[in-house]
Amino acid sequence: MRVRVIQREGQHGIEVTVLCAPGDQRAERLADRLRTAGGRLTAYVSQTGTERRVVPLASVSSIRSDADHALVRMVDGSMLHSASRLFELEAALQQTEFARVSRQEIVNLDNVQTIRPEFGSRLVLGLKGGREAVVSRNYASQVKSRIGIAG
Prior knowledge:
This protein is about 20% helix and about 35% strand. The chain is of the alpha+beta class. It has one domain: CATH 2.40.50.1020. The strands form 3 sheets. The chain has a 5-stranded antiparallel sheet with strand order 5-4-3-7-6. A hairpin with a 4-residue loop joins β4 and β5. The protein starts with about 25 loop residues before the first helix and ends with a helix.
């Protein structure tokens, strides 16, 4: 892989072009990571990946593991499919408001409306759109710290 940075007078913003051989999955994953850095996520309407959508991170409620890909739940309740696995999305979303809440799920903390303590040191997060996400006890202290709850 060859990476070049070209600085140009009068250039506004960042433009990235990824040049690759047809079907190179590494290039698509790299492009997805770059899009999340810009506050957007790429997902597909169906698992076959024929209709791609680039959505703002703010409109994503949660991301859940599903076999060899991830399901992206939008605030409006619709579901999209990501070709990336959950751990890849988690790495790409590290500097955002997304947090791991269990082995199977990442939640957008900006879309949490309610927090309820649950038996066994777990938490239940009420998300915009009416869905709830259970924070397992393994991730509860990290989530509490991220949202500013002592304990």
